[in-house]
Amino acid sequence: MANTILHKADSRGHANHGWLNSFHSFSFANYYDPERMHFGALRVLNDDTVDAAMGFGKHPHENMEIVSIPLEGDLEHKDSMGNTTIIKNGDIQVMSAGTGIYHSEYNKNKDEKVKFLQIWLIPNRLDVKPRYDQISLNPADRHNKLQQILSPNPDDAGVWVYQDAWFHLGKFDKDVRTEYAIKKSCNGVYAFVLNGDFTIDGTALSTRDGLAIWDTDNIKLTAHSENAEILLMEVPMEV
Fold first, then answer.
1. Which of 4, 84, 202, 232 is most enclosed, with most CB atoms within 10 A?
2. Cα distance from N-terminal residue to C-terminal residue, the chain
3. Which domain holds residue 216?
């Protein structure tokens, strides 16, 4: 029997800095909950909205895999490796902070907000050479199925990270069912609903709800609304 923990959207930590409205699925900055420090290797899942022409100034990271998934708008990234890029909905960005990097993130637009998920994974290798990558995904590849967007393997679909983790996005019509098979034994899955309503293994979820699932080989999903969208993050439970 699988173990599950449901995190309702309104149970997340919340910080409104005026220019930044951020919801934290796990302890972050001034939000601390000893019961929600991480889910295996998944350390941070922040749901951020940044006002027009605002953003995060230059700041450091080390020994963390940092994944950004834009949901709306255009986010400008600059880093100490010399990268200056724009990421937008349909893109996925990854940084291996390794021995240390600095970067900044700004809303490129003067007239609209930018929304994105910032995700941190605890790596399985420390002090690697920092690296940066981003790709553009084809949204059609996730219509009524799960599209792989991240894995441990550079030759696989999506970006890659220094961790035995796999991420998938899916966008479903109402009443469509699918299954997800765990890629590596002893891994768990954190499911995060981006939009709409789902049932996962009998648990009802709505927009921005999260469900942690472990001690299982596969999970069953059913969409209960049109354009229901979900992110599945498979990660090692032992870190």
1. 232
2. 23
3. 139-236
> Is 61 assigned a ligand-binding role in the annotation?
yes
Do 147 and 74 share a domain, yes or no?
A: no
Cβ atoms 75, 45 nearer than 8 A: no
Residues 1-52 pLDDT 10s: 789 999 999 999 999 999 999 999 999 999 999 999 999 999 999 999 999 9
Residue 239: pLDDT band (50, 70, 90) is confident
Q: Are residues 156 and 193 in the same domain?
A: yes
The answer to the question of whether 143 is labelled as a binding residue is no
pLDDT, tens only, 106-140:
998 999 999 999 999 999 999 999 999 999 999 99
pTM strictly above 0.85: yes
Q: Any known ligand binding at 103?
A: yes
Helices (H), 142-200: none
CA-nearest of 54, 76, 130 to 98 is: 130
Place of tokens 């090692």: 236
pLDDT digits (tens, 9 = 90+) for 74-91: 999 999 999 999 999 999
Report DSSP letters for 59-111, one per residue: EEE-S-EEEEEEEESEEEEEETTS-EEEEETTEEEEEE-TT-EEEEEEE--SS
Nearest to 63 by CA among 152, 128, 117: 128
The answer to whether 169 and 147 are in contact (CB under 8 A) is yes
**Is residue 59 marked as binding?**
yes
